[in-house]
Amino acid sequence: MAKEQDGSPKVRHPEFQRMRVTLTIGVIGLCVTAYILGAWQGTSNGISSPLISTRTQCKDPVRSSGARLDFQAHHQVGFNESALAVEKFPPCQLKYSEYTPCQDPRKARKFPKKMMQYRERHCPKKEDMLRCLIPAPPNYSNPFQWPKSRDYAWFNNIPHRELSIEKAVQNWIHVEGDLLRFPGGGTMFPHGADAYIDDINALVPLNEGNIRTALDTGCGVASWGAYLMNRNIITMSFAPRDSHEAQVQFALERGVPAMIGVMGTERIPYPARAFDMAHCSRCLIPWNKLDGVYLIEVDRVLRPGGYWILSGPPIHWKRHYQGWERTEGDLKQEQDEIEDLAKRLCWKKVVEKGDLAIWQKSINHVECVDSRKVYDAPQICKSNDVDSAWYKKMDTCISPLPDVKSEDEVAGGVLETWPKRAFAVPPRVIRGSVPGLTPEKFQEDNKVWSERVDHYKKLIPPLGKRRYRNVMDMNAGIGGFAAALMKYPLWVMNVVPSGLAHDTLGVIYERGFIGTYHDWCEAFSTYPRTYDLIHADKVFSSYQDRCDITYILLEMDRILRPEGTVIIRDNVEVLVKVQAITGGMRWKSQIMDHESGPFNTDKILVAVKTYWTGKLVQKQ
């Protein structure tokens, strides 16, 4: 028998030993059960009611499929609230309801008019940036769903009558009570864009899938791009914020891709060889002036074998010169100079019929290099920096094409027809133009984003329906998010942040999608309330050391429609900061688990912008 240190004997009975073993096993069992239960709760979506509410065109709040999204935190990371005090952002004055910070007409007059410099981007300094929420106009209503939105919009959303009067004969816009109706007319197609596109199709085949991406310079209300969607052609339309008030806003309100932009002194913000077709319908761009710099810029972004379509002055001048109030000699000279410049760019004139003239860019520069012995200008640029297009001055030399081995080879590679193009390995990937991006990694990226979008649909069921039309991806990578959404009736503005080590926007265009370069420390080139859904993958962790992320969130709020949705992917520390800021922006938000489960430090923040509008009684 053992003795204790005090010397007294103590007997250990078998019953006590069994009780201790049983108790130990019981405690271990409870711990394991609690751990499993906690993990199971953590993997839930955190949504008790699956849907984000919308408003009908009657302005009454209704639920799209039964219930509101529950944003009560079921799996939320705690933090010291005193360390992250919520700043409450007030509404801006109602006069800012259509504020475009980098294209502010009130400040444009300070800049030279030469080469449209005053219409280019001129962003406010940090001390002049608004720290308030841009209000929607009174009686704002959610836009109509596509495709009805192509033809109709609410007048209260864009209360402008100017174009309905100025362009009445050309059928741009009609005001009908509380509605705006868009008949599809344009300056050179008053009988409708559909008939105009039929005329183009008779000259250049548009329905075979070879033409997928198009560029419309000086787009008006973007009716050309709107009706091309019927032929599976997606158009990047741009126009300046000028005397034709809100023309780009009209396009986006209707669910048609567009940006504020101008042919000025800087390259348009798209990569080289991006578009299958470019178009100008009386866009008033002086193609034959300034050493041909604007047509040279179109050549840069036009794909080898791509088409340039021109209607309006000076085409068919013998018929229209009196209506254009110009002399025959002046118009003839302009057309002769455009024809000569096109030859110097190594373009071939395909046809001129009626009001249309069409040229085609050569598929490579084999003959073009030899022709420089004949033409003194423009020469082929010595620099291969052809994709750089963020605050980059235009060149008066021809952007070089990739080398080829024969006269019949398409420079840069042949693209698949649409829709195969979306998932075929792009030529830039095959050629190794993007360091580290291989065909295998391209395919893996498609798989990853397909799984992520499937997860998003569980969090936001309207994603697979007609709730969202205008979608923005703030850090688009190689376009995997857009590709995973292509079966739905929406379009994606794929943004590639400027200054990245590896430029991927060219890959996105080779997949048949559209996008632009942008620096998120500045405002985007669009009007307020133009996007239904904004997706941001690693945007804030990338920018938090470059600029105040509060202003990025305020910019997101500016371009997001009331009751629009935001999806932000990032590490949990960044998302906690973001959520603290959005708490003062009239957003409802919740941090949820990564699709791989609760143990991934990356999380997903889903937020909804609440409905509110400015008030007329507000002091102006």
TrEMBL record:
It is found in: Endoplasmic reticulum membrane; Membrane. GO terms for cellular component: cytoplasm; endoplasmic reticulum membrane. One of its GO terms (biological process) is methylation. SUPFAM superfamilies: S-adenosyl-L-methionine-dependent methyltransferases. Keywords: Glycoprotein, Membrane, Methyltransferase, Signal-anchor, Transferase, Transmembrane, Transmembrane helix. Its EC number is 2.1.1.-. The chain crosses the membrane at residues 21-40. It is a single-pass type II membrane protein. The keyword Electron transport does not apply. InterPro entries: Put_SAM_MeTrfase (IPR004159), SAM-dependent_MTases_sf (IPR029063). Coiled coil: none annotated. It is an enzyme of class 2 (transferase). GO terms for molecular function: methyltransferase activity. Belongs to the methyltransferase superfamily. This is Methyltransferase.
